[in-house]
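ok so for the tutorial part 2 we go from a plain amino acid sequence to predicted structure tokens. step 1 is just haveing the sequence, like this:
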Amino acid sequence: MLTLYHCNGARSMRSLWLLYEMGIEFELKELPFSMEGLRTPEYLAISPLGRVPCLVDDGVSVFESGAITQYLGEHYDPDGKLHRPVGHAERTEWLIWLHFAETMAVHGASLVQQKVFIAKEERSPVVQKLESRRLEKALEVVDRHLADRDHLLKSGFSAVDTNVGYSVHLAKGFVPLDPFPNVVAYYERISTRPAFAKAAASVPLKEQAPKSA
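step 2 — the prediction. this is what the tokens look like for a chain of 213 residues:
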């Protein structure tokens, strides 16, 4: 059986959401979102950096959420419902958005560090302003791309929407989405999916997004 290691509030929500979308059987192991919970010798033997997500399949450990998305597609989605295999007309576009999701998440993760984990007296207003602007620029790219479609691929919802969709979900806790109307409509569509709601049910965003001027 597949086993997913997950922390509430972490980007492992991407993998959890995708597994729910795929409707395949798996075991969910939730770990404490703390150094103590993620740095045990047992978990480090599975995930060498002690981070989530990590997927274990028949003794094979797959870490990094993008790699998990691709692995699940190649091994558990033979019909290409959510995956786009080599040779598919949308393969290149699918790969681009799979990795763009991580670009967005890097800026979101920096803001999480600044606004949640770093003590207030040690936070950097410069870093927060810079990372917020970088996140907004990434959202601009997504907003333009969604001008003529409901999902990232014209053919419809796919696994890359779970990756980029999570990054939008994270972003809305730190920057306002309303300057990006296509992203707002996109988020409304994906967040009403039952698999999204199930994966997000226990994932609290740490801060509310600021209101735009």
